[in-house]
Amino acid sequence: MSIEYLGLSEINGPLIALEGVQDAAYEEIVEITVDMKEKKLGRVVEIYEDKAVIQVFEGSDNMSLKNTHTRFTGRPMEIGLSEDMLGRTFNGIGQPIDDLGPIDTIDKRNVNGSPLNPVAREYPRNYIHTGISAIDGLTTLIRGQKLPIFSGNGLPHDQLAAQLVRQASLGADSDEQFAIVFAAMGVKHDVADYFKRTFEQSGASDHVVMFLNLANDPVVERLITPKVALTTAEYLAFEKNMHILVILTDMTSFAEALREVSSSKGEIPSRKGYPGYLYSEFATLYERAGIIHGSSGSVTQIPILTMPNDDITHPIPDLTAYITEGQIVLDRTLNGQSIYPPIGILPSLSRLMKDGIGEGFTRKDHQDLANQLFSSYARVGEARALASVIGEDELSDIDKIYLTFGKAFEEQYLRQKETENRSMEETLDLGWKLLSMLPKEELDRVNTTILEEFYHPSEEKN
Amino acid sequence: MENKMMNLISNTDNTKGIISGINGPVVYVKGNTGFKISEMVYVGKERLVGEVINLSQEQTTLQVYEETTGLKPGDPVTATGDAISVTLGPGILNNIFDGIERPLGDIAKSTGAFIGRGVQVDALDTEKKWKVHMTVKKGDYVSGGSIIAEVQETSSIVHKSMVPPKVEGQVLSAVTDGDYTINDVIAVVQLADGTEYPLRLAQKWPIRIPRPVSSRYAASKPLITGQRILDTLFPIAKGGTAAVPGGFGTGKTMTQHQIAKWADADIIVYVGCGERGNEMTQVLEDFSKLTDPRTKKPLMDRTTLIANTSNMPVAAREASIYTGITLAEYYRDMGYDVAIMADSTSRWAEALRELSGRLEEMPAEEGFPAYLATRLSQFYERAGHMKNLNGTEGSVSIIGAVSPQGGDFSEPVTQNTKRFVRCFWGLDKSLAYARHFPAIHWLTSYSEYLQDLSPWYTKNVAHNFIDYRNQIMTLLNQESSLMEIVKLIGSDVLPDDQKLILEIAKVIRVGFLQQNAFHPEDTCVPMEKQYRMMEVILYLYSRSKALIALGMPMRILKESDIFERISSIKYDVPNDKLAMFDDYHKEIDAFYDSVMEKNA
């Protein structure tokens, strides 16, 4: 088993090739010793006959064709798991970097995971209260959902994610265990520090497992980071019955790393140079969220990605949104008006919302109210476009009302403080208060009986 | 013991190969192995299922339907002798399979909540005894497609077991009615060359080959879906093809779910191809609870699900579409109207692209292989309203979702799909943003079946149905050109007759085109009500137009709430109380009179 191969036949970026190999398996992990001292890990990414191509996680620095010893472990990439991981910090491939020693465990899992059988899934129906009106009211987050934040450089996605972590609660009646798995891929030191501080300040840090692959850490390691994080999350959720919120940031760096490695492997590129399997690769990550029958835990994912050039049709946000169950899109114009959180509600969506709100969950008017707010706010956009052509004064009366409504919606409903935690009741009532600015015949998305009960324009005026 | 012997014998007969290289789902075998193209193979020690996709003197190329982690050069590959096939027999309905017809329920029993590798499960339950009624007896002459036995498969569907295509001869023996498993021999046929051919409840069929039929019929009946914009404006025929393209969040899956729930097909095959796991769970949960409005039986009893979610192996995703269409054809052969939802064909096309990239084929547009269009056409051409081999009439309708990259309809999958489908239901982002659902845009969508189906609508709904439909379309088109002007100068300057068009078009959009899938009455609307709704809207238009012609300004007309009243008919008139429409006509008359009186 423990044959060591001396030397290499090729080094190309993070990829090395080895010839004369016997009995190597696809995706097996190899241990490489450089100059008899430095240890590195790698993974077999291609085999043809006796030639194996290996991707080195720590990068191929210091390696030459002669100074390496390579040993095949016979196992795929595994990580040892334990509840003791809570409160600990690891590097991008799951090795402790907080000087608190190794994790002592016999529970090992393949980081690639396996697809969750749709038959074994339970359809997510319980909402998570976040205290942010734009999310609770219009794009409700459901336990077991994967809901990404689409952002751009310079937008406050980190603050929003931190606020979500601070405020997300399973409801007052719940005494279930809640923990956070945080995976940073290619993020700046400041960002990682910001999250660390936030977790400490909110007293959550002993419920957080952090995996950090920072911007100057090896690129290949980045490909493993989300897998290690999700394997940990699945373990804590489905074997230890905890509710896990996974934050993955920044998925754009992950995709960039994938492209870099793909191109050094000489693969045929598809859109914008990304490999053809980008969708499948994303899917194997994002689909690792959900709830299993018979287990009381859950994995909820909030991946964060920065859209290159704010382009939502770029392959990274595009493919992500085809897999995830909705998206929260941050808007640069709102941010420019200092509205926090700058959530552009029209392109935002929560696909699981419809089954987790309404009578028995939030309130019976929730769906109709949300539909009407979306529809009316879309109308605001039309009125604004018209106003920019013919001027506000020339607008019809109803269009003028919409302009006022739009302003009020952004100032009162969207805008809130970073520490403000609104109750569901407050969010819904605020929605009705804003709708009462509009005449009744404009509210065409609301069921007649609900309108009777909740729409009271005259009272609001008093 | 006996089984083991059988295995040993068959193994020695099979050709074998040795793995030489692995790259993702693509595996290479060295030398000329004697494998056949499209043959099913078992790969490695775990016996992963694979298929032969390329042969040469030097090397055989396989695609593997499971994760290839851990495979090694030197591992064996065993051929099965058969093309990649599905098992067709009772037990398909009210079930959920992966892309190569392995029941997910049994996989869960065998490997738990997560799907393991190399799972050996039977496609259909081989233990279950079905109550069989034989429809042939000794001495009967049977040929391909002849129905030999009937089984009540689910509460709503009678399963008809048939002689496989190309088998023909005299029945030498047949069992009596009773309880049999799918593998029991229930009849024996003597073929022309004298050999005896055993018939069972189940048969196999290769997924990439269409099941043969006698002839094709022209499209003549619509597939009624209960969705107003589809049934009235852009109908699809039974045996027709439709594409539902739309960017993310525009409601492709929702549209597919609605059709799968309410379409008047006998059988629904729902293929979740590279989509979300939770969505398949939702279909499974919802359809078990909902009842079919026509048979009053659970919807799952007429449904089969193929779930190859996005994180399952990519090669099986490619196969799932073919598995689905083969199951659909099988039920068509029994004389049923089958509708297959493929959600989404773009994921299937991407699976082709991914495999093509791994094979290092020369890419064509956007990295898709050059044979994309051929594959798409082969798939959509398997739809049709057919005369089956046994003389019965059945149909397969295909409704394929397309997920264009960036929501841009000019990309290759959408464009090539457009060439091979006759219905195009284009979903629109701005409608979805304004939560106008279904977000099918009336200006970009079309149906080529309208001509073919006009006689049916005239005969079965109303003689002026098509006329009304065209009037509605005209109003919507006029609105769109007027909106161009409004965008530039505002609506105040328009003359009153044009303001009226905008107002009526709004009633059509809100009151007719928007349909609430979560409202118990509105989720599925009978044809009669769709017609009456159009009628009352057009009546309101003609009366209002008369008032405007008399010089009444739009402002006065708007003082009444009649426009809102008509817009909410969809909620206010229950589907079984269509007599209420007469009251609305009276209300419109009263509105006309009161305006005349006040402003005379």
Extended strand count of chain A: 19
Report the biggest beta sheet of chain A as strand number plus sense, adding barrel if it closes: 8 strands, mixed
**Total helical segments of chain B:** 18
Percent of sequence in beta strands of chain A:
15-25%
Could you list the spans of chain B in which at least 5 consecutive residues all have pLDDT below 50? 1-13
The assigned structural class of chain B equals alpha+beta
The average pLDDT value of chain B, as a whole number, equals 92
Helix share bin of chain A: 25-40%
Spatial shape of chain B:
globular
Task: Outline the biggest β-sheet of chain B.
Answer: 10 strands, mixed
Count the beta strands of chain B.
26
Determine Rg of chain B (CA atoms, Å).
28 Å
Compute the CA-based radius of gyration of chain A: 25 Å
Q: What is the terminal-to-terminal distance of chain A?
A: 83 Å
For the structure shown, list the relevant keywords:
A: 462 residues; alpha/beta; eight-stranded mixed sheet; 14 helices; B: 600 residues; ten-stranded mixed sheet; six-stranded antiparallel barrel; 18 helices; globular
Task: Give a quick rundown of the structure.
The complex is a heterodimer of chains A (462) and B (600). With 462 residues, chain A is of the alpha/beta class.
Descriptive report:
The complex is a heterodimer of chains A (462) and B (600). Chain A is of the alpha/beta class. Chain A starts with a strand and ends with a helix. In chain A, α2 (157-167) runs parallel beside α3 (189-201) and α4 crosses α5. Chain A has an eight-stranded mixed β-sheet with strand order 9-14-13-15-17-12-18-19, sandwiched between helices. In chain A, strands 1-7-4-5-6-3-2 form a seven-stranded antiparallel β-sheet, with no helix packed on it. Helices cover 34% and strands 21% of the residues of chain A. The model of chain A has no long low-confidence stretch (mean pLDDT 90). The longest helix of chain A has 25 residues, at 366-390. Chain B has 600 residues and is α+β, with helices and mostly antiparallel strands. In chain B, 36% of the residues lie in helices and 22% in strands. Chain B is built from 18 helices and 26 strands. In chain B, the strands form five sheets. In chain B, strands 8, 18, 19, 20, 21, 22, 23, 24, 25 and 26 form a ten-stranded mixed β-sheet that branches. In chain B, strands 1-2-5-4-3-6 form a six-stranded antiparallel barrel. In chain B, strands 12-11-9-14 form a four-stranded antiparallel β-sheet, with no helix packed on it. Residues 1-13 of chain B have low confidence and may be disordered. Classes of the chains: A alpha/beta (462), B alpha+beta (600). The interface between A and B is large, with 85 and 83 residues.
